[in-house]
Every structure is written in structure tokens, then in C-alpha cells.
Specification:
This protein is of the alpha+beta class. It is 67% helix and 11% strand. It has five helices and five strands, in the order ααααβββββα. A hairpin with a 7-residue loop joins strand 2 and strand 3. The N and C termini lie far apart (48 Å).
Length: 209
């Protein structure tokens, strides 16, 4: 795999990271809205919908980011090529081969169901908001195929099919990966700047004379 191909996939990872961070910000806004509008049922409903969308987008894009660096299949000629590419990508931004929070089997198990759940509920959402106390609220959803999930906004803990996702920690890890990616991209840009520098100084010297 050449440098251009590595750069292409690193930029794809950068895009997924940005989408995850943005969805995390949307989740924060929705949680704040739920707290501010705790006495208004219609506003609660809209805040729950926004939280539902944000949580699922976080997990869907995190799954896509995860699969860039840890692909699903490594068998056959094409699978081996994909795995070798993933190894090269991990090496470029110093990701370990095995022990990393983004190498998340729970995400891999539920990716299709999460995606289906978002698409299914985009037209009609089925949810219930349960307020346990004024400070600790749990929002649950039940879709047409009885895929039960719930979110505790205070801790940003999301449970889907009994699998627990600590969203705050997950977003923090994505932010760290994003920083590594940006550092890598900055290094790729530096040689171009160093090549352009002598030409600039030559141009500046001519004007000075």
C-alpha cells in the first residue's frame, strides 16, 4: 500500500472522528434541553428524540471508525490485503493491534441493529421517558422489533441488547485518536512547506533588492 492510499484512509478516519465528536456535542445539547424543559412534555419528547439520534450516530460512526483500523474479515487474498492495510494504518498513528477501546466487539455485534434502529425510527419513534428523580433520568426506547435500549443522561451510559456503552469514555478515546490523526496529517504537510520555503525566501530577497 502506497503513501497516497494510507493518506486516503487516514482522512476517512478523520471524517468519522469529526462526526462522532459532533454527535457527542448534539447529545450534550439534548441533555441540557431535557434538564431545562423538565416540566414541558412536548419539549421533553423532542429532547428524547434528539438524544436518541445522537447516541445512535455516535455508535454507528464509532463502529465505522473501528473497522477502518480493525477490519471484520482477514481471510482470502482481499481480506489479507485489508488486514495489512489496517496494520499499516494503526502503525502510522501508533494504535495497538489488540488492546484498544475502539477495538470494541460490542459495537461489532450490534452495528447492523443500531443502523436499522435509526432508520426504522426516523419516520416514527416509539419511546417512553421515565423520570426516576429530578436529577437522574432514564430514557428507554422500544422499536417495532422489541430491541430494548436505555440511556441514563447523567452518566451518559447507554445500554443496547444488554451491552453497556460508556459514551463519555468512548468519545474521549475518539478525541485522542482524532488528535493522533491530525498530528499525522500535519507531518505529511510539513515536507511540502519545507520545499516551498526556499522559493519564498528567494522571491522575498528579489523584492528586498
Amino acid at each position: 500500500m502506497d503513501a497516497k492510499e494510507i493518506l486516503l484512509h487516514i482522512k476517512q478516519a478523520e471524517l468519522q472522528s469529526e462526526l462522532i465528536i459532533e454527535a457527542g456535542q448534539e447529545l450534550d445539547r439534548a441533555i441540557k434541553q431535557l434538564q431545562d424543559w423538565s416540566e414541558d412534555w412536548d419539549c421533553q419528547r423532542r429532547a428524547c428524540e434528539d438524544m436518541y439520534d445522537a447516541v445512535h450516530l455516535i455508535l454507528i460512526h464509532t463502529h465505522q471508525l473501528s473497522r477502518i483500523f480493525w477490519p471484520a474479515k482477514c481471510c482470502g487474498e482481499q481480506g489479507l490485503d485489508i488486514c495489512h492495510r489496517a496494520m499499516a494504518l494503526r502503525s502510522e498513528i501508533n494504535l495497538p493491534d489488540l488492546n484498544h477501546p475502539l477495538r470494541n466487539e460490542a459495537l461489532w455485534r450490534h452495528a447492523d441493529e443500531l443502523d436499522h434502529s435509526v432508520r426504522d425510527n426516523s419516520a416514527m419513534r416509539r419511546y417512553n421517558a421515565h423520570h426516576l428523580t429530578s436529577f437522574n433520568q432514564v430514557i428507554t426506547w422500544m422499536d417495532n422489533e422489541a430491541m430494548f435500549c436505555w440511556l441514563e443522561p447523567a452518566s451518559k451510559t447507554f445500554v443496547f441488547h444488554t451491552e453497556e456503552f460508556a459514551l463519555t469514555e468512548l468519545i474521549e478515546v475518539v478525541h485522542q485518536v482524532q488528535q493522533e490523526i491530525q498530528h499525522y496529517l500535519k507531518k505529511q504537510h510539513q515536507p511540502n512547506l519545507s520545499l516551498a520555503k526556499p522559493a519564498f525566501y528567494q522571491f522575498e530577497k528579489q523584492w528586498a533588492n
